[in-house]
Structure formats: C-alpha cells, structure tokens
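writing this on my phone so excuse typos. first protein, seq and then structure
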Amino acid sequence: LAKLAKKEHDEDQRPAIRNTIPVDEYDTFFIGYPMWWYTFPMILYTLFDMYDLSGKTIVPFNTHMGSGDGGTYRTIRKLEPGATVLEGLPVEMTNAERGAADRVSAWLKKLDLD
C-alpha cells in the first residue's frame, strides 16, 4: 500500500471514486484519512475535484506518524473555498493504537455540532 501511495503521489494521480456521493443530501462532511507522504491520499484530490462543497461544513481528521495534519486542513480550505472547514483532529498513530477515545470525544464536544 505504501508503494502504491507513493506512486500515486509522485505521479499526481487522481484515483477514481467507485460510487457517486449525494452531496446535496448532506450539510456536514467528516473527512478522515491517513497522512501519506506528508499529504492526504490522492483520492481526496479526486473528491475535491469532482464535488463542489460550497455551503457545506467539512470536519477533517487524520492519523499521522509525527507530521500532524501536514498542512492538509489548509489545503482543504484552498480546494473548497466556499466551504466552512472546522478545526481538525490530527491523531498520532501511537496515540490511536493506545486509544484516543477521550481526545476524540473532547474534540467533538468542542465542535458543538447539532
């Protein structure tokens, strides 16, 4: 998987999304991903290329091995300028493996989404 992710990144590929997403049916999108090569997986670029999320709320979260969000929350804001991008939650993998439930719960409460 790591080799595939690197190849997609190096070649600036846009992997296909298998199914359509009925974005009109939702106001809020939680978008979670692992950090691969200091960015999100290339399929998320496909998502942002295919769908206009203007007027929607995006809540990003990710796992990482020390790079935090790697600037990806800022990238999402640039790719979807008409969307509201809320505070994301980067979770370091060793913390995720030990359990990050308390941190996730606190983050969700802080977001105060209905």
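second protein below, same order as before
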Amino acid sequence: MLPDVRGLRGPLSCLTQARYGIAWGALGALEAVYEDALAFSKTRSTFGKPIASRQLVQTKFVDMVSDHTRGMLLAWRLAILKDQGKLNYSLVSLAKRDNVRAALLAARSAREILGGSGIVLDHPSIRHMLNLETVDTYEGTHDIHTLILGRDITGENALE
C-alpha cells in the first residue's frame, strides 16, 4: 500500500511512472540498433560499394535519426514536466506509444540492413526487436495508448 493514497490513484501513478521509464528505455534500444547497423553498413559492400552508400539504406538511417530525435524531444519535455510536478498521464501514454513503436521500426530496419546477419545474436537488432515486441504489449499496447489519447483529445471514452 502507498501511504496517503486511496483508490486506484496509487496503482495508476505507478503505471504512469513505468511507462515514463519505458519511453526512455525504448530510445536506448533505438540507439543501439542504429549504431550497430550504421557500423555494419560501412563495412558491408555490394557491387564494390559499401551498402551505406545505397539510397534505401540511407533512407532507413534518416528515419531512425528522425524518430530518435523526435522521441528524445518528447521524453526531455516529459522530464521537465516531471521535475515541475506536472507530469500528465496522457503525455506519458503518447511517449510510450510513439517511442516504443519508433524503436521497434528501427530494429526491424536495422535487421533488414544487416541482411542474414540481422537474425543472429552477433548483432543486437534481433534481440532488441524481440524485446520491443514485448515492450509494445506490456504497460498498454499501442492501440490502448491510442484510445487513451483519443479519450483525452475528444472527451469521449472509446474504452467502454
């Protein structure tokens, strides 16, 4: 039991804090798969050129960096609000939803860049991808967070 807390407020505040941590943790996974795939792409060659020079590979890296930057800005804003005692559960839902999905997509892209090496444990992409599939589910799925945000935006509860 949490002191001076009644009803569901305590458990829900714990859930919000866990989701806050997940939003940050997902960005760490995104960084790891990005860095590994980038290093690999500079050493793996096709037709005499590193695959890092290929347009589709570069597009995947741009998407990873863009998603990471957007996620960091959101998480950083949440940290400021948390320090001010103004952390809002719906913003935490947004961060958990978007950062986990961005990290999962980055892990999938990294696995594609790595080709056959992307499914072996020599590279972290497959491990992070499988972990992120789990993270995408616990503490509320992407769809549940979408409904939480929809309720916050419209005032209508689609969860009922």
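The helical segments are 9-43, 55-83, 89-114, 125-135, 142-154. thats all i got for now
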